[in-house]
Amino acid sequence: MPKKVLTSLISEIAVSRRILRQFAWVMTVMLGLVVPLVIIWINDWEIVRAAVIVGAVGVVFLLAGLLVPMWLRPVYIVWMLLALVLGTVVTRIIITIVFYFMITPIGWIRRTFGTTDTLGLRIDPHRESYWIERKEPSRADQMKKQY
Fold first, then answer.
1. Stretch 135-139: mean pLDDT, rounded?
2. Is the pTM of this model over 0.70?
């Protein structure tokens, strides 16, 4: 990633004491409670040590968030950059999957059955006018609330 892009991304990340405290609380809950419980739930005593270490890191986040939240600024910025990169990649993957597995088959089916000009945008050189005649005249009160 070019340095200018990285610098502009970092400058757009909002960092305040309040946001850093919220980040500390989220990391405390995830690292201090959820992850150790999942590791212990696996019920392998070899990794209980890992649960204790991850829980201790959660406690460190809690203490830093309560006492000196600005110490968490570098961690928060790296975390947000990682989230931006993951969000960009996952979005591209989802859009690609939707296009190739939904939009493309719809186009194939429409071309197969010959319904390619549903909006009537194709120019017909033999047509005199593209004016669409209405069967009933519209009422004036319909113009006030069009939707």
1. 78
2. no
